[in-house]
Design brief:
five-stranded parallel sheet, three-stranded antiparallel sheet, Rossmann fold, binds adenosine-5'-triphosphate, 3 domains, Arc Repressor Mutant, subunit A, globular, binds magnesium ion, Helicase, Ruva Protein, domain 3
């Protein structure tokens, strides 16, 4: 065993999922665009509404929080993680608390009244961040956006909405009424490639571990696994878990064996978030893909699926596209040069996915 003062970690908080690094590599373009959109608020005029769209772990939340932290006190900022707050009243209550500096009444007030109080009190431009907006129901999203978007006309206030979603089709879920007043600029977050993942994870290793403690072989393997899965969070998890594993062995160096040991055990935790964003039909399609032995042509898979469940081809196709956007499957033309048919491939180890699915 290592003594307590022999830890190979220097700062293990840099592996926490809510740790906000002060350097966000390879996201300059997105951050510049975000700053440009919000900048008018600093001059007392209306910010540009912004949608941040891209797969999980592409830096949406981090870049938004970073840019918000750079805006001074001349702007009112409210950051809301939508999965935690499902109703329009609760969302407005959080805005109320920030703007009015005291708790919103729990009951006895309609959400419209609460909204009016916010608007009357607001004396600065307001930026509302709705992070993971695809986790609230479409009805609530439409009502909320409509209310907020109408307020400049009705109350002469300046409001900017910044919303983040993993589903790039999110704008299609907006009602025509909202669509007519919601003019936004979209910022796209593409998946990080191998080189970008390498740079981002290297930064963590340098901050997080004692110099030289993470062997090159182990690091390259972490980068490879995270790139394959298209998931930076998996990389961050593996760095810390492999470090802990090395310490348990009493080793002062993290080796390949530590990475392999923790990967086989823990990858499923990383699927949990993506799976939670799926509805039951989508999980069913995913399950069937992972129960099959080999890759399969989309048409053949549909035949199989229709017999079991009965679903339109269009809906089925949309589901496959969504599973691909969430990096749960590959849905591609002829990896093996077999014409114009699209094939469905697994991205993860089948046992890991099926086990994670069992928890829903
Ligand atoms: N460019 C980057 N540089 C350094 N760390 C990053 C970068 N992008 C993401 N990260 C780290 O990766 C993790 C995931 O990032 P973040 O939460 O911002 O992603 P997200 O796009 O909001 O994901 P989700 O859609 O799942 O909410 C965080 O721990 C974050 O610190
Ligand atoms: Mg996020």
């Amino acid at each position: 065993m290592l003594r307590w003062d022999e830890s190979i970690f220097r700062n293990d908080f840099v592996f926490d999922l809510d740790f906000l690094p002060d350097v966000l590599l390879h996201r300059e373009q997105q951050m510049n665009q975000l700053v440009a959109n919000l900048m008018p608020a600093l001059r007392g005029s209306s910010p540009v509404h912004t949608l941040c769209l891209g797969p999980p772990a592409t830096g949406k939340t981090s870049t938004i929080l970073y840019v918000l932290s750079q805006l001074g006190e001349d702007v009112e900022k409210v950051y809301l993680r939508c999965p935690a707050i499902g109703t329009i009243y609760k969302i407005l209550a959080r805005i109320f608390e920030k703007v009015c500096n005291h708790q919103a009444p729990q009951t006895g007030l309609s959400h419209i009244k609460l909204y009016e109080k916010i608007m009357e009190r607001l004396d600065r431009p307001l930026i509302v961040v709705l992070d993971d907006i695809n986790f609230i129901s479409t009805g609530v999203v439409n009502d909320l956006l409509y209310l907020l978007l109408k307020s400049p006309e009705e109350y002469g206030v300046k409001i900017g909405i910044v919303a983040a979603a993993t589903d790039i089709k999110f704008p299609l879920s907006l009602s025509p009424e909202v669509g007519a007043v919601f003019h936004y600029s979209a910022i796209y977050y593409s998946l990080y490639g191998n080189k970008e993942i390498w740079d981002i994870l290297r930064w963590r290793v340098e901050k997080g571990f004692v110099a030289g403690a993470f062997s090159d072989g182990a690091f390259e393997r972490v980068v490879e696994l995270a790139s394959e899965a298209g998931d930076l969070r998996l990389g961050m998890y593996l760095l810390r878990a492999a470090g802990l594993n090395a310490e348990r062995r009493g080793s002062r160096k993290v080796d390949l064996q530590d990475v392999e040991a923790v990967y086989s055990g823990g990858a499923k935790l990383f699927l949990a978030k993506s799976l939670a964003a799926l509805n039951s039909d989508e999980r069913e399609v995913l399950k069937i893909v992972y129960l099959l032995d080999e890759e399969i042509a989309a048409g053949d898979l549909y035949g199989f699926f229709q017999r079991e469940v009965g679903m339109s081809y269009q809906r089925f196709y949309e589901i496959l596209n969504k599973l691909e956007r969430l990096r749960l499957i590959d849905f591609v033309f002829d990896k093996k040069g077999r014409g114009r048919t699209r094939y469905v491939y697994k991205r993860y180890d089948a046992d890991v996915v099926l086990e994670a699915l069992r928890e829903f």
